[in-house]
């Protein structure tokens, strides 16, 4: 969603357990500046996380309270992509294009975001063709994108975009890495993303799996009144119990306590 409020309850759970929480607004991909979501923003995000740690470390209000060699990083969706980058993963815009070439029909929203959606009608073919033309014109760079920060000592990637990663680069992360998945995620179909990471990484932990949750299961509070494509992708599927979200928030905090407070 590109806004901090949708992670307010997780932040409260972390603060209650003694953590200091910072939420950077990523350039080109936040609710006030949504101009360049996707790979262009993903190139910048990991460095922006490092800059956030720098800023906190230089702030006299927080510096005495921080252990800058024991930073935890949580990211969801595009933030999950950032988390995987910081866990040692390498990806490229060309790999994004390669995934969409192969799987756009089964993972359409992962390739086009909120621009449009398939409706099982005569326009679907044209939408797919146009989407691939735009993707090929914008995302040709095969340069591997990497960035790690030695201060980050534990990472949680929640329903992450992951199909553009070289999975071998995530086979043995240098820090503990946990994932949160959602079976009914229609924005990032799990088998192409989080499940693929878990299949490649024997040491990674599936922290939680929402059996009836969608892509928005971790947004808490969930923005009310979402409609259209974004509502279809983020609103809770029928039968999903929002109490599960608070349970997972506590699991995230417990994961960080286990690995950062030893």
Task: List the SSEs and their pairings.
Elements: H1 8-16, H2 39-58, E1 71-76, H3 78-86, H4 93-103, H5 108-112, H6 124-138, E2 152-158, E3 177-182, H7 194-200, E4 205-210, H8 228-234, H9 243-260
Parallel strand pairs: 1-2, 2-3, 3-4
Helix pairs in contact: 1-9
Number of strands: 4
Distinct helical segment count: 9
- Proportion of beta-strand residues: 5-15%
Please give the CATH architecture: 3-Layer(aba) Sandwich
CATH fold category name: Rossmann fold
Structural class: alpha/beta
Q: What share of the residues lie within helices?
A: 25-40%
Estimate the global geometry from the Cα principal axes. Answer: globular
Distance between the termini: 33 Å
CATH class: Alpha Beta
Averaging pLDDT over every residue, what do you get? 96
Low-pLDDT stretches are none
List the strand order in the largest sheet. Answer: 1-2-3-4
H/E element order: HHEHHHHEEHEHH
Counting structural domains, the number is 1
Question: Which oligomerization state do the chains in this entry correspond to?
Answer: single chain
